[in-house]
Amino acid sequence: MTTMKKLTFPDDFWWGSAWSAEQAEGKGETGKAETIWDRWFKEQPYRFYQRIDSSITTDHIHQYKEDIELMKKTGHNSFRVSISWARMFPNGGTGKVNPKAISFYRKLFSEMNNNGIKVFANLYHFDMPATLQDKGGWESREVVDAYVHYAETCFKEFGDLVCHWFTFNEPLGPILGTYREDFHYPNLIDFKRGAQAAFFTILAHAKAIQVFKELALPSKIGVILNLSPTFPRSQNPADVKAAEIADLFYTRSFLDPMVKGNFSKKLILLLQEYNQLPEDYTKEDLVCIYENTAQILGLNYYEPRRVKSRSSMVDTSSPFLPEWFFEPHIMPGRRMNEYRGWEIYEKGIYDLCMDIKNHYGNIEAFISENGMGVADEERFMDDTGQIIDDYRIEYIKDHLAYLWKAINEGCNIKGYHLWTFIDCWSWINAYKNRYGLVSLDLTTQKRTIKKSGEFYKQLSDTNGFRYDVDLLVE
Ligand code: BG6
Which of 22, 25, 139, 369 is flagged as catalytic? Predict the structure, then answer.
């Protein structure tokens, strides 16, 4: 059966996309401190796809005016950038603020506002100034203080231009990458130190919100979390327990303290049992975290998490890891984005929104990232030079249909931002997988709207699209 229907989204829905400073701006001439990405590239260039670093990326710093025109042509009414801490404080992330950085961001944000594009500004997207990493990065209270000073400076300098603020993008990412999975500088595999860094990240979030509230700006502040609904392989108690534990580590770890102000008791007990709790924390820290929670929540959704109970014994002399308690379940028949190695499961976006509705007070939220990175997209270029990315259009529609269902069932979802706008630099994957609504020629920096960019404009103009609702499963 086919039941085609127009899926209409709420009035003033935020249609847009996101990227980050390190991935899109390029170094420019404003002055900028070395970041951990510059440092890591210098030390181990062979770990970056085709040995491409972040010095030029999408050169947004020079091309921002043209880029804002492209935002309009692709239907944006909102866009998330991140501010570069290293550009704001070129002397290693502290010291005197950089007037050239202030001037750049004020021009960018003003131009966006003048063109009807709301500014969503994120303060930290994986780009620690290297000097602050040398001081311990997120394991150091000194770095927390430096971050709060940087945040306060941004609130004061740009508060009149920003619609919504975010303390962090995916704070779990650097913890996972640095302390557990070796994909983030300085590549230390040590869970307990990671737990300390996670605690201080949460504290930094709360302290920034505290300062924000004192300034009484007209905007809201929140956080952007990467969340995946967790599914056990079966209802066997061992699989269910494995899924519960995975969910504690990957979902509740940041969501609970940053949105509710407290930590999951089950997670605390588990970490206590294995002597993995952070040691440096005070009662004042806990009160600050409790009193200063997110006012708005960004949800980055790419893939579900499927787990099963372990089939082998743990070698307890190996470094402690969440995977001591579960294994990934490679579900037969799953649909994959093979280029990125992520499962595509559109219903997961609905499950995630329902979790936020049912367990987090239905806080005001939006999809802050969702998207499909594809390698060698030139294969899909037509004679005019446009990428015909029908697969991306399908991907967006399939996810939006489940988002529409969630909204219709009462989820407080205010918008959808795609990852990403123009193809941008993807950390160690550099330009391997392209995610944009607009393609980028790396040699000439020429931008060309993809077919998905045209679709996105129509979607935003009409605030919806036609879809076969019989495809939506319960
Ligand atoms: C998100 C990050 O998790 O995924 C982005 O916020 C990132 O910074 C995006 O680029 C896509 O992942 P990747 O690794 O393919 O770049």
Answer: 369
Cβ burial of 354 (10 Å; 0-12, 13-18, 19+) is middle
pLDDT of residue 201: 98
Amino acid at 433: N
Distance CA 87, CA 33 (A): 6
**Residues with Cβ < 8 Å from 362, sequence gap 6 or more?**
356, 410, 411, 412
pLDDT tens for each residue of 217-260: 999 999 999 999 999 999 999 999 999 999 999 999 999 999 99
Angle at which helices 99-114 and 141-158 cross, to 10°: 50
What atom of ligand 1 comes closest to residue 426's alpha carbon?
Answer: 16
At residue 45, the pLDDT reads 98
First to last CA, the chain: 16
Mean pLDDT along residues 85-102: 98
Least Cα distance to 323 among 305, 299, 342 occurs for 305
pTM of the predicted model as reported, rounded to 2 decimal places: 0.98
Element (H, E) at 80: strand 78-82
Tokens of 217: 């700006």
Query: What pLDDT was estimated at residue 474?
Result: 73
The protein residue whose alpha carbon is closest to atom 13 in ligand 1 is 426
Q: Which residues line ligand 1 (CB under 6 A)?
A: 20, 23, 169-170, 226, 300, 340, 369, 373, 419, 426-427, 429, 433
Atom of ligand 1 minimally distant from the CA of 226:
3
Residue to substitute in 303, 421, 427, 428 for testing ligand 1 pocket (most ligand atoms within 8 angstroms of CB): 427
